Amino acid sequence: MSIIYVIMVIATMQSSDPINSNYQRVKFNSKVECEIYLKNNRMYLTHELIHALENLENDKLLDMQFGCVKDKGTEI
């Protein structure tokens, strides 16, 4: 059985509840692979997600956190 890992993003906004989402453009066969990718690409991911969130009117991004989590429902 293989478990797939994805990058989890938590964006904290000024005027609303935190946004918790899985970034599924890339998937990994181990947590270690995910963590290495995250270490090497954190700046790119942050930049990409800032642009995705900049269209939220009347809200301001305060913080963005990343982590590696098991992708539910992908056990093979």
- Helix proportion: 25-40%
The parts where pLDDT drops under 50 for at least 5 residues are: none
Q: What's the overall average pLDDT, rounded? A: 86
Tell me about the biggest sheet? 3 strands, antiparallel
Compact description:
With 76 residues, this protein is α+β, with helices and mostly antiparallel strands. It contains one helix and three strands, in the order ββαβ.
Characterization of the model:
- This protein has 76 residues and is α+β, with helices and mostly antiparallel strands.
- Helix content is 30%, strand content 38%.
- It has 1 helix and 3 strands.
- The protein has one helix spanning 31-53; strands at 5-13, 19-28, 61-70.
- Strands 2-1-3 form a 3-stranded antiparallel beta sheet.
- Strand 1 (5-13) and strand 2 form a beta hairpin.
- It is elongated.
- The chain starts with a strand and ends in a 6-residue tail after the last strand.
List the helices and strands and how they pair.
Elements: E1 5-13, E2 19-28, H1 31-53, E3 61-70
Question: Which descriptors would you attach to this protein?
Answer:
alpha+beta; 1 helix; elongated; 3 strands; 76 residues
